[in-house]
Amino acid sequence: MTNGSEGKVQCPCGRTINDASDYKLLYLKKEQYEIDILCPNDTCFLRELGFIKFAVEDNNLKILKASFYPPFVTWNVARLGKEKATQMLKQHLRDIINNQIDWAKIREGAKKVAEEEASRAASES
Ligand SMILES: [Zn+2]
Q1: Structure pTM?
Q2: Distance of CA 45 from the midpoint of ligand 1 (Å)
Q3: Alpha carbon distance 36, 48 (integer Å)
Q4: What is the mean pLDDT of each run of 10 residues along the chain (125 residues)?
Q5: 102 is in which domain, residue-wise?
Q6: Which strand (E) or helix (H) includes residue 38?
Q7: Residue 85: inside a domain, yes or no?
Q8: Contact 122/43 with Cβ under 8 angstroms?
């Protein structure tokens, strides 16, 4: 079977994911500090393939947890083998964190939220 997805990460819906830029990223409400990793296929039955949770401390961003969900991982382990799938998915997560996420924008948003909270607290007291 050669359909172009051989040796590549794939979503259970059949969509081949060539590299980290293929994923869709969904920035959840900034207060929650979570980014959902979505399948690029709009009609995917799984949709959410993973997530990245982070914290903002003194204007520094810290990754708390980055992970793909079990159905996506299991699917790729079955196709590529555990070692290769684990390695490729880890690389994808790293690429998403390092290259795909607009951290400057997030930092800016977090700063705004903190400022709003500070001014609200000030006006309440
Ligand atoms: Zn999919």
Answers
A1: 0.84
A2: 6
A3: 7
A4: 74 97 87 88 97 85 94 97 97 96 84 86 84
A5: 10-124
A6: strand 34-38
A7: yes
A8: no
